[in-house]
Amino acid sequence: MPAQKRCLAILEDGTLNKSVSFSKEERTQLGLRGLLPYSVESQETQVERVMAGIRRKGYDIERYILLSSLQERDERLFYKVAIDHIEEIMPLIYTPTVGQASKEFSHIFRSPKGFYITPEDKGEIATILGNWPEDDIRIIVITDGQRILGLGDLGANGMGIPIGKLALYTACAGIPPHQALPVMLDVGTNNEELLNDPLYLGYPKRRLEGQAYFDLIEEFVQAVQKKYPRALIQFEDFLTPNAYSLLNTYKDRVLSFNDDIQGTAAVALAGVYASSRITGRSFSDSKVMFLGAGSAATGIADLMVAAFIDEGLSPEEARKRLWFVDSEGLVVGSRTDLKPHNLPYAHEVPHRHFIEAIDTIQPHILIGATGAPGTFTKEVIEHITAINEHPVIFALSNPTSKAECTAEQAYQWSKGKAIFSSGSPFDKVSYNGKEFRPGQGNNAYIFPGLGLGAIMANTTTIPDDLFLVAARTLAKLVTEENIQEGALYPRLTEIRRLSLDISVAVAEKAYELGLARDEKPTDLKKYIEDRIYHPNY
After folding, report:
1. Which CATH number is 112-254's, of 3.40.50.10380, 3.30.1310.10, 3.30.70.270, 3.40.190.10?
2. Which position among 64, 79, 80, 94 bears the catalytic label?
3. Among 18, 80, 103, 165, the one annotated catalytic
4. Which segments in the chain show pLDDT lower than 50?
5. By C-alpha distance, which of 450, 447, 442, 390 is closest to 420?
């Protein structure tokens, strides 16, 4: 390659480029003189320019595209922007904007990011995995695009989710971006709109199902064990039956977890723990009702059972604290339409519809994980408020357009009594002279720190004990100021510090349980801190 081409390649390599922040000396040494404007700027000035550009855009999807291009062009500047302005940037690179970005992924595609596997790759996954340019992969996020957020089957367009999740692993916990691998298991789509879209980039056939589907995943998992033996595999946005099947297949075999089931569970449990500081009711005395009985809701319940047992309840007593309502009403033993993951929570009581169930069961905590917007109606909020001085209400469905109710609705309909949290962000709400800052029960509070701790200790698996310690650590990090604002979670501006604390607690527990394959460092926190990625030039 001619020298001039090599010099230009530096500016085109997102991992090396720092644009107008190259010093005069560097420009001379690297052959960049004349290729850049005269001014030498600090990275902070470049951050200001990027933020000004973002704020000039009229739509969030335009901001997403701008940030995606920045990530390709100047990786360190992208992460500097994300870290320094996390409250403003996270909703753009993940929920809620990633939902729209995933729907439009094939239409806004600029350059490839991540690794794609199709049924045509069967028998050759290990071979083609060798095409990935990095050898030291520590974290993999994989989806098959069948249940993206609350948006349904988006096929290969779902690649936006692994890309976004891994950006949060770096921004929120400092896992080096070159150690992250986004994977799309592109086994087709049953979405007719996508199949008829000439711009759709995915495998243009109906979904692979049955044993052939699971065989393809098994081949991938085995290929990862050989090529990247220290990598953690995070399963993301799989259809509920497949999500549970994969979780049960791999949770005790390889370093893996399902964020929709287990990550959501840990962040919700942390919020419930924190809510007791407002309600004055201990966790072990709480009754929880779920609207929605899919993987997210039952995942939360499964972890709560472990938490109740840890506090001295029997498994039977623990499950009696947890109640489910789905589209057919209360989940009870007399129903014949229940999925296997619902059966442990099918209580032997008369069938009731949602409002009747609230009045009969009288729960203290209401958790929505439906993907159906507006299902926490004024009547629902009024009924649970009539039972509780401070009803705890979680509207967890993503993106924001799918939330069971808005923050403003929860506070107004409860007359300011609700303790509200959501899956996507809501602005502050003023009611009757008081300002509430609704906490966002974002999985980003859990999975980056959990993943960091697991890979730093080189753990074999991630049992419930590690999710419990992550949830308890997060709950302890909620400050009195947060509580006074009505927030069950710390501010996102603290997320790097929170993730570090969670990673240390998770790694400590892994060593205690004998799950760690690496020798424990003398100073575990310093060991992790020294390996955290910082995007400064």
Report:
1. 3.40.50.10380
2. 94
3. 165
4. none
5. 390
